[in-house]
Amino acid sequence: MVSDVIDRCSRLWRAVAFFVTLLIFVSHWEGKAIESLRGLDMDAIASTLPPGVSQLALYDLDTGELIGQWGDEEPFTPIGGLHAMMTAWIAARDLDWQATVVVDPAIDRLPEGAVRIGLERGDRVSVRDLIAGTLLVGAQDAALALAIETAGSEDAFVARMNAEAAERGMADTVYTNATGRFDDAQTSTLADQRALCLAVLEREDLCDLLALARTSFDTVDNHLPANVPNRLSLLDLGDGSYDPRVAMSLGIGSNKDALNMACVADCRGSRVLLQCLTSLSKQRSLAAVRSVLDALEAGMATVDVSESVTRLLAGCAEGDVELDVPIEGAIELVLPAWRSFDESDLRYELSDHTGAPTPGKVYATAHICYGDREIARLPAYAAQAGSRTAIDGSDLRRYTQSDESYTPTRYDRYGWLAFVVGGCAVSALIWGLSSWLRRMMRLSAPW
After folding, report:
1. 429-438: buried (b, 16+ CB within 10 Å) or exposed (e) per residue?
2. Which residues of 160-191 are buried (b: 16+ CB within 10 A; e: fewer)?
3. Which residue of 13, 194, 201, 274 could cross-link 434, Cys pair, CB 3.0 to 4.6 Å?
């Protein structure tokens, strides 16, 4: 009897050792799921956010690179405007924006509590106003009207949505309705939704809508309000949550359990697509978005690129006209932590010509650009004969925020080994303790 008790205690201690070791490994890899890319400290960003932010992804729209993420491929149920983005995108592509839609009687079947902009059967509304209501408000009556106008019925339109998702490689996305109402069978991931966001951002007409803090409607022959605000109040100058860095809302939806959203922000010249899923209130979720943007800007630095611009302009000319473009002072470029400066991305364009070139006189304005961003404007003079100075361009170099590329730390390289050794040590300690207790209990047991 006593022997059985000792054996059971020993097995229990060894089970504890196993689970402690397993817990150490799980906690390590859970931390590694917060993925940091190219020098951006996602752990530091995570530490500034409340626990209710369950998924986050940051994507550099200028370079087409994922900056960092956690939960990027974990499934969730898209709701509201984020879900209806697919509805609006298909309708914007397939319908004439100026066409008039007569609202179908099916609008009466929307469930109680659905988000509406006031449409009633028989209303006459432009496609543009329906798209605006769907994107900016997440209006389910507008989304349903678009679906029926595009495909004849909501079911037929949902089939088109799923076919479009498959064509765009959104392998983990399933749509069950066109309006954004909650349905457990509906699923997607941040990675899939990002593919759709990028398709939406390719359309200038949709981008113009998404940048509006408020939109007006044509109220003739319908029950629409004169105007409605964008649900993403970060765009509204008159709202307390306004943030001038936020340039577009790509959809926001919420219910009592979750909020999902996507937006485009300009962080000191770098365009970033931010996607998140939270279990927080709307105001706390928007505060979390501002914290993320603050952290992104904190990781940026100003780099002097004057030498690179000097090399770029060494052979400046337009046709047969050779030009001198003097540089006075520093030309600075703000770079984020995740992006390196590449001199080959520098270019110049000439504009504002003054007429026929006169040596020593201003001939044009040189616009110095880095990628799509203008960083300086300089006067370009028609060169004097024999006055041009040769510049040696053999020492081209790349810059980052600290003039060197991001170097992985020792933890990045060997952190996993510390967890392995630590886990084995704790396991061996508990195992040895259980064996010692087993021997002591056997020796002291009254046989």
Report:
1. ebbeebeeeb
2. bbbebbeeeebebbbbbbbbbbbbeebbbbbb
3. 13
